[in-house]
Amino acid sequence: MPPLVIDIRAAEDMRDVVHRAVQALHEGNLVVFPTETVYAVAACALSEAGIQKLLRVKNRQPGEKPLTLALKSVDDALDYLPNMPPLAQRMARRCWPGPITLVCEDQHPYSLIK
């Protein structure tokens, strides 16, 4: 299937653009979007098909290098990282949403991602 390109400058309703991106992620597809510095490629963290596509696009093997999770809050992060260190939680509470990346290890059995 060829990629779908949405020109956000020509969109009548930005909510439709967001809806289409969320739908694509939900279906296991990738979404590319501009950030302040680079173009980001995203997959739904809970979609095995999406993660596999993302790994292929990034030319990575599973477990080779961690992928970034974009999260809006510490509460969301705790779903994926139940043992998030207290210092990381404090930094996230002060800085998120915002331009900070935290790298944390976790193998908790109740994490949403294994």
Describe it for me?
The protein is mainly alpha-helical. The chain folds into two domains: 1-64, no CATH class; 68-114, no CATH class. It contains four helices and two strands; from the N terminus they run H-E-E-H-H-H. The chain has helices spanning 14-26, 48-57, 74-80, 86-95, and strands at residues 31-34, 39-42. It has a two-stranded antiparallel ribbon with strand order 1-2. The protein is globular. The protein starts with 13 loop residues before the first helix and ends in a 19-residue tail after the last helix. The model has no long low-confidence stretch (mean pLDDT 87).
How is the topology of this model organized?
Blueprint: H1 14-26, E1 31-34, E2 39-42, H2 48-57, H3 74-80, H4 86-95
Antiparallel strand pairs: 1-2
For the largest sheet, list the strands in their spatial order: 1-2
The poorly predicted ranges are none
Q: What radius of gyration results from the CA coordinates?
A: 16 Å
Q: What sort of overall outline do the alpha carbons produce when their principal axes are compared?
A: globular
Distance between the termini: 29 Å
User: What kind of sheet is the major sheet?
Assistant: 2 strands, antiparallel
Approximately what portion of the residues adopt beta-strand conformation? 5-15%
Question: What's the helix count?
Answer: 4
